[in-house]
Specification:
Helix content: 40-55%
Order of helices and strands: HHHHHEEHHHH
Strand order of the largest sheet: 1-2
Number of helices: 9
Structural class: mainly alpha
Oligomer: single chain
Length: about 170
């Protein structure tokens, strides 16, 4: 509501205001300071001569300057053809996935995909004797401490369907 109201005032009589601004006389620029003119150099020939005159004393001093430059010796590394050091992560293939090309194919060791996380949580919930924390850690290449935290703090949802008789009571 407020936007409409401000837009009305902003566009009110817009064309006339624009024409008025365009038809105004342009302001004349402020006069420049006299020292900024380059014409003064042309008026004084002594300054021009001073600029272009060679100073023999300065030239002899410049000729006496000798600069010697040496590059440090090049050190060749015996890397045996190694590349730049980079951390290469070991990857493992994922266990599940029914989305085909959209599924994550490889996951770094020590990490799991979303599908795998949901699957292992559900397996642990349904069969806690079979899917223990130690077995999950070995199966998915995870640390036991992280698996214990995962099983403690993340619980998958349980879908419950109520019979029709109890729905009326609820």
């Amino acid at each position: 509501m407020g936007g409409r109201l401000t837009r009305v005032f902003r566009t009110f009589n817009l064309e006339n205001r624009a024409r008025r601004e365009i038809s105004k006389e342009k302001p004349t620029p402020a006069p420049r300071h006299p020292t900024s003119r380059r014409d003064e150099l042309a008026d004084r020939p002594g300054i021009q001569e001073e600029i272009y005159r060679k100073d023999d004393r300065l030239l002899t001093l410049l000729k006496d300057v000798y600069v010697e430059s040496r590059d440090p010796p090049v050190q060749v590394k015996d890397g045996g053809g190694e590349h730049l050091p980079c951390k290469q992560e070991e990857k493992r293939l994922t266990k599940l996935g029914n989305l085909g090309d959209l599924d994550v194919q490889k996951v770094p060791k020590g990490k799991i995909s979303i599908v795998e996380a949901l699957t292992l949580l559900n397996n642990h919930k349904l069969h806690p004797q079979i899917w223990t924390a130690e077995k999950i850690a070995v199966e998915y290449s995870l640390e036991l401490k992280e698996v214990n935290s995962l099983l403690e703090f993340f619980i998958p949802f349980a879908v419950q369907e109520f019979p029709k008789e109890t729905r009326k009571a609820i």
